[in-house]
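Before going further, it is useful to explain how the protein records used in this thesis are read. An example of such a record is reproduced below.

***
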Amino acid sequence: MATEVYLVRHGETMFNQLNKVQGWCDSPLTVKGIDDLKRTARALSQVHFDNMYSSDLKRAIDTVHLMKNANTVSEIGKIKKLPEFREVFFGSFEGDDIDQTWAQIGQTAGVGHETNVQKIINQVGIGNFREATKKADPRHLAENSAELNERMVRAISNLHQLTKNEKRVLVVSHGDFIKTLAIKYWDQNDGIHDIQFPNNGSVTRGIIHDDGTFEIVDYNKDAEDL
């Protein structure tokens, strides 16, 4: 049985608002974040889900409960938390100022004092950006491309095992993780070039096929587009 997967990005958080690096570190949803999520939840309220899952970070857990509570056509039990669907890990940069962090990574990547992450990625490529992040991290704990790819593959494999008898599920995850999944699994992308960062509360749809292969079929749709 193929399983349709609705990947929802969590709502805006305090760290998003304060322009801080937020990977495995956590911060609460803002009022704006909750309001945006309510629109997404209303748009999905009549979509039947066999189950709902979430990253194990609190901002994702709070988001999935908003989706669950608004849905009137699904009977969802206890939410299972999936650590593999956490955000990308930024190591020692967690909680730091975003502009200062990108400037450090940009210098390591050889593009000078650049604070615009998209410009850095455009110049060096997403793979080299990940390598530069790990190299610039004083403790070298940040995930590089190989580590992140291994975790993505494990995430899809685990989800496939969990959803073998489920036709449609919702999974709350994170912006950079969803984007990286789409770079790898979206047929409109070549698997190399960067793509637009998904919006808070946006929905990306994928399909896990019977044999465990995964593909993204719809990316970064806001509530009004659902």
